Amino acid sequence: MARRFPALAGAICTVLLLSIPAAGAASSSTAKTSHGTVCIARAAADAGHATKSFHHVHCARGKARRGSGDSSHKSRELFFTAHDGVCRDANLSPTVKNVSLVRAATLCLVNRERARHGEPALHWNEQLIRAAQAHTESMAFGNYFEHIGPGGETPLMRMRRTGYIYSSRIGYEVGENIAWGSLWLGTPRAVVAAWMASPGHRANILDGRYRDTGIGVSPHVAGLAHGQSGGIYTQDFGVRIG
After folding, report:
1. Can you name the residues that pair with 178 across neighbouring β-strands?
2. Which of 31, 44, 86, 190 is the most exposed place for a label (fewest CB within 10 A)?
3. Residue 109: what pLDDT?
């Protein structure tokens, strides 16, 4: 029998992986997500929460290389190396004034998970930051929650627009996690915990081939969260090969 949940129930999405081509040129017209998403309703007495993930591979011979980083973020991405192992600001609720702190805390939590599983830390990439922030703001102000924008723009198209995927001749692996949460479920700690509890999102976070990342954060979730405060997040992952 179907269960009925409160009006503010969110959704936790799991991922069904599908096969994708092992090689060949990729273009915006042929790029597809490599999975289907199944959303499972979850009761929430005081808040809503939802996550989704995307993953795509285009193969080419060559060595993986890290993209040009953003040095202004370098010190913040390594918070988890502090002696106490604590990620600062992990319990912050996003506001217009603290978005940079929330972004840094999110990466700290992600990199701490990677370190626990023997994977290298992700490094900030300015092109992925721009792609992630633009999509976050599009969802926040467009009142939708999808990897594909209202105009049909996919994660790959956004990464091409910012220059992260700059040639059809390079190989790459890219992924994207998105999430929104109201009240305490909108903090970096709650969002990363939700991602880690979902197979598809966890796979993106722990993929040892990724080198680069960008995170977008917005406190504007009123339309999604029935007027409550909270946060909406996009994390883009990537590695370029060639």
Report:
1. 52, 234
2. 86
3. 97
Supply the pLDDT for residue 44: 30
Q: What are the structure tokens assigned to 71, written together?
A: 């040095």
Phi then psi for residue 9, to 5 deg, are -60, 140
Q: Phi and psi of 16, rounded to 5°?
A: -105, 110
Task: Of 4, 214, 229, give the one whose Cα is nearest residue 106.
Answer: 214
The pLDDT, as a whole number, for residue 179 is 94
- Note the pLDDT of residue 236: 97
The pLDDT value given to residue 206 = 96
The pair of three-digit structure tokens given for residue 58, joined into one six-digit string: 């285009």
Q: Which residues in the chain land under pLDDT 50?
A: 1-47, 56-63, 68-83
